[in-house]
Amino acid sequence: MPDLPEASxxxxxxxxQLERKxxxxxxxxxxxxxxxxxxxxxxWQRELLDPAFYxxxxxxxxxxxxxxxxFEQLQRNAATQGVELWGALSWRFAEKTGMQGAExxxxxxxxxxxxxxxxxxxxxxxxxYHNMWVQGEVSHPQFLELVRLFYAAAxxxxxxxxxIEPSSNFSAANxxxxxxxxxxxxxxxxxxxxxxADKRLDPKIRDLIHSxxxxxxxxxxxxxYIPFIVExxxxxxxxxxxxxxxxxxxALPERERELNVHLKLLREMKDVAHKTQSAWLAACWVNYRNxxxxxxxxxxxxxxxxxxxxxxxxxxx
Length: 317
Prior knowledge:
The chain has 317 residues and is α/β, with parallel strands linked by helices. The protein is 46% helix and 9% strand.
């Protein structure tokens, strides 16, 4: 399988002397064979890092793939060899999840035997959207249209782009701590999908997908569509080449407490509809969801997005 084009500039490396430290001491959260790195880009961010994680200076990384590029580099680095589980999280992990590193490791240790531990820092999306692909439509211009073309070029089944998914299948932010087996399958899967799509896409569409149009609200440091596609490929992988792997969704109590009663009911309603495969209940959920969004997001938002995030038929993923 051909590799992706190499990013310009020097490769991100594990922080100086980190490998030696790892060989001499266990993760600081608990005495367990788990190595979790925390990515940062500027010196002031280091002060905000969690003491349970290992600092990883990523200031020299200019790769379009963002976190995925770090995963690739770490997988080949001695710092991740010989451990059961490893991952690389954002310097904003605590801010986004409301969780400290020690609690994350505690949940992992208390639920052994899984190949990947993941979470969703935005549980409100589980209540509002059919799936994470549909959610992307309100965050990135023409997202679903471009993703459909990407799927076709990559040889993926685009039926899942509009299917109703349960809350257990929502994942965001590339917050994974996983086994060697997971990484050995997931990384080649993503690379193969990206390379295949790039080869087959119309050049104009390919250029658009690799453009900063994706970050029109300037919230993601000028990112292209690629990292937003990659983070959503996790569940595609888990249903295909990773279907033999076991996944555990880490609970985020602080984020759960932020959900109002309507969001909790909407999420439960959608989950029950999915579990029972009830098209009637799914339609009721859509109606309730639309009413909620009209009250919370306003008329202008609904006129812009509501039709786009409401598929014309009920399908279950």
